[in-house]
Write a structure and sequence with these properties.
The chain is of the alpha/beta class and 489 residues long. It has three domains: 7-283, Rossmann fold (3-Layer(aba) Sandwich), CATH 3.40.50; 309-418, Four Helix Bundle (Hemerythrin (Met), subunit A), CATH 1.20.120; 435-484, no CATH class. It has helices spanning 42-60, 76-85, 89-106, 122-134, 163-167, 210-220, 234-249, 280-286, 289-297, 309-333, 348-359, 364-383, 390-411, 418-433, 437-452, 456-468, and strands spanning 7-10, 15-18, 26-31, 64-69, 138-141, 144-147, 184-189, 204-206, 224-230, 254-260, 263-265, 268-269, 305-307, 471-476, 479-484. Strands 4-3-9-10 form a four-stranded parallel β-sheet, sandwiched between helices. A four-stranded antiparallel β-sheet has the order 5-6-7-8, covered by helices on one side. A three-stranded mixed β-sheet has the order 12-11-13. The longest helix is centred in the middle third of the chain and has 25 residues, at 309-333. The structure holds adenosine monophosphate and zinc ion. Adenosine monophosphate binds at residues 32, 34-35, 43-44, 46-47, 229-230, 232-233, 260, 262-263, 269-271. Zinc ion binds at residues 32, 212, 237, 241.
Length: 489
């Protein structure tokens, strides 16, 4: 079997390249994970969802994927947060690892194959620093160890920054331990009250960048296929990872570098330091997790994405349309046998469109457009079938429903039963609008009685009463169902 023709944008070459993995049929992917000093925000969640879909799609395409995403559980921000709460830094980090796992599960993010933590990788980190010192790429200075950027001939090849420009205005300050302004810490000597570990340079802790060099090599080898993260990590974090790993191993660290664009709020990158953050767990009390995924995936991962409550409400409304379609289709064809025969409207073309979009640098927006076409055809076939042959309509609907099942695991969408998803959405809308469900059910009973008595004026009046409260009713083959318009509309 020839390898699937996936193309992906490589930040290193600034071009789309054909995915040709180091070992045919296998992919090793490393994604820089969260710094666990607080709850993640939906900007972080966008990046993690993008790579979640990359991994899912590679598996869908038949690759055996090893997915590594780390936890930065030793870091200045963690130490600072722990001083504020009075906890031990390691305990605070462990608490936020658990919080992250809950959030990730709620967003239907796949659990990576390996989720290493800095605090559990110290021997490997010390070993790689030692190697860099031995090879002359790093130097010790009063218990700290620094990477000597001027020793690395191709430093900044990923970000394409100009070293002279980077140095402008930078100088080594009195009291600094480093020799040159661009040098960065691999190891920091212990300060009182900070977590520390033994090392050949005395007690201390790792600098930020070295952990990813140590962890990726430990779990994926010195050279692996894909390295990912958000755009803000290109410089200095990924640049420094490359400098460390490639100087230590004399091998190319990652073949492809993928970066996810920012989630912005009112024109600025969502970030804790700006204070413009929406926590993932808060967002998930207001919006369905699949709707949040849908919102992320409706824009290509490399493009900026602007967050707004309205955009989330629109995503959820769109998902409701999809789930209502699925409910209708299931009512019509689930478990039924239709005589074998031809299908209407080439249902297989949607899979081809979906795969073409995803093969083109994981273009999830194009993939969703293909799905829109598929759902439009399902609606047409259930509401006003363009063909008379009922068996052909049934067969085609079953084939289309099967296509939805196939792709839902790639996107992490439509994984619920339609009835359950729609009920959950309705429950949330009921709470938001303060609707009295017992009263709605009483009115529905009155309407059913009026209809049975053929008193259509009365049944219309009751429908109107419900509508005033935001309750919409639909008579389906399976009985009367009702839904609630969200509070904002
Ligand atoms: P951090 O915990 O800050 O290291 O971030 C975890 C991941 O989220 C990294 O890959 C960041 O690049 C990414 N990230 C942070 N802010 C945003 C944002 N506003 N939009 C998209 N990705 C982000
Ligand atoms: Zn990293």
């Amino acid at each position: 079997m020839s390898p699937p023709p996936i193309r992906l944008f490589n930040t290193m070459s600034m071009q789309k390249e054909l995915l040709e993995t180091l070992v045919p049929g296998k992919v090793g992917i490393y994604v820089c994970g969260p710094t666990v000093y607080s709850y993640v925000h939906i900007g972080n969640a966008r990046t993690f969802t993008s790579f979640d879909v990359v991994v899912r799609y590679l598996r869908y395409r038949g690759y055996e994927v090893t997915y590594v995403r780390n936890y930065t559980d030793v870091d200045d921000k963690i130490i600072k947060a722990a001083h504020e709460t009075g906890e031990a830094p390691v305990a605070l980090a462990a608490r936020f690892v658990e919080a992250f796992r809950e959030d990730a599960q709620a967003l239907h993010l796949l659990e990576p194959d390996v989720s290493p933590r800095v605090s559990q990788t110290i021997p490997e980190i010390v070993a790689i620093i030692q190697k860099l010192v031995d090879k002359g790429y790093a130097y010790e200075s009063q218990g700290d160890v620094y990477f000597s950027v001027s020793r690395d001939a191709d430093y900044a090849k990923l970000s394409k920054r100009n070293l002279e420009e980077l140095c402008v205005g930078e100088r080594v300050q009195p009291g600094d331990q480093k020799r040159e302004p661009l040098d960065f810490a691999l190891w920091k000597a212990a300060k009182p009250g900070e977590p520390s570990w033994d090392s050949p340079w005395g007690k201390g802790r790792p600098g930020w960048h070295i952990e990813c060099s140590a962890m990726s090599e430990k779990y994926l080898g010195a050279s692996f296929d894909i390295h990912g993260g958000g755009l803000d990590l290109i410089f200095p974090h990924h640049e420094n990872e490359i400098a460390q790993s490639e100087s230590a191993t004399d091998q190319r660290m990652a073949k492809y570098w993928m970066h996810c664009g920012f989630l912005d709020l009112e024109g600025a990158k969502m970030s804790k330091s700006l204070g413009n953050v929406v926590r993932l767990r808060d967002a998930l009390t207001r919006v369905d997790p699949e709707a949040l995924r849908f919102f992320f995936l409706s824009t290509h991962y490399r493009h900026p994405l602007n967050f707004a409550d309205k955009a989330l409400a629109d995503a959820e409304a769109r998902l409701e349309y999809f789930y209502e379609t699925l409910r209708k289709v299931d009512e019509r064809v689930a478990g039924k046998d239709f005589a074998a025969g031809p299908l209407h409207g080439e249902p297989g073309r949607f899979r081809a469109e979906f795969e073409t979009a995803m093969d083109d640098d994981f273009n999830s927006a194009g993939a969703l457009a293909a799905l829109s076409g598929l759902f439009a055809l399902m609606n047409e076939l259930t509401d006003k079938p363009p063909v008379k042959d009922k068996a052909m309509v049934g067969r085609t609907l079953q084939a289309l429903r099967e296509e939805v099942r196939r792709v839902s695991s790639v996107l992490g969408l439509f994984e619920d039963s339609p009835a359950e998803w729609l009920l959950r959405r309705r429950d949330r809308a009921v709470r938001e609008r303060g609707i009295d469900v017992a009263q709605v059910e009483r009115l529905l009973g009155e309407r059913a009685a009026a209809r049975a008595a053929k008193n259509f004026a009365e049944s219309d009046r009751v429908r109107g009463l419900l509508k005033e409260q935001g309750v919409e009713i639909m008579d389906t083959p399976g009985g009367t169902v009702w839904k609630v318009a969200p509070a904002s509309t």
